[in-house]
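haha ok so turns out i had the wrong file open the whole time. this is the CORRECT one, sorry everyone. sequence first:
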Amino acid sequence: MTELKNLLTKQRSKERWLIKNFIGMGEIAIMYAPKDHHKTGMALKIAMEVATGSQELGASLNGKVLYYALDNPNETEMLNRVIALMENSYPDHLEEIGLNLHIDWEELNLTRTNYEDYIDEDEDGNPIHLTWHKIGRLWRNEFFFDEIYSLIIIDTLSKALVGGGVNDDAIIRKVIFNLRQIIKGANNNLSILLIHHSGKDARKGMMGTSILSNDISTVFKIKKKKDGFDLIRERHKSAF
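then structure:
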C-alpha cells in the first residue's frame, strides 16, 4: 500500500499544468455542450484566465493564447463578446488581454498532411512544406510569429474538418495525430482545447466517433443550471 502511495505521489509530481487541476500542459482537451450552452463564452473565459495568469479556474500559467474563431465568422459580434467579458470580469487586465489573446478568423484544416501547401522553395524550386510538427515549433518560437503561445483554442472542431466529419474514425484519428504533432513540436509546452457539440441531450455525450472521448486526455462538459452554466470535467488522463 505504501509503495502504491509513493508511486502515485511521484506520478502527480510529474504532472504539469496550464491551469492547475484543470488543463494539463502539453495535452489535448475537448469541451462540449448542446447548442446555445455558452461554449464560446466558456472558451473565452479559459483563454482570458491564461492571458492574465488568473486563478478562478485554478492557478494558471500566464501565457499567450491563439483562438481560432472558426464558428464565429462575424468579427464585430465576436469582438463585442470579447470586450464585454474583459470589461465585466477582467477590468484591471484589459491591456494584458489585448497583448496576450489573439483571435484568428482564417480557415484551419486539421485533416491535411501539412499545415500549409508550402511556405517557400528550396534551391531547386521544390516547395518546402510546413508540417504540423514544424508549426508546433513555430508557435513556440519567437523569431517566426513574434509570439510564444501556451494555448491554442479551436472553436469549433467540426469547422476544422475537411473531407469527412466527426463520425469518420479515420478523419478523427488523423486530426488527433496532427494535434499531437503540434504539441510535440512545441516540446510539450503547448496545450490545445477543442470546442465541440453534443446533441440536444448532453447526457449521451459528444457527437461523433467514440475516439474523441477515448483518445483525448481531458473532456469537459458544460451543464446548464438555473442561474447559468457549470463546467464539469468528465475525464482527465494525464500524459505525464
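The first strand starts at residue 17 and ends at 19.
again sry for the mixup
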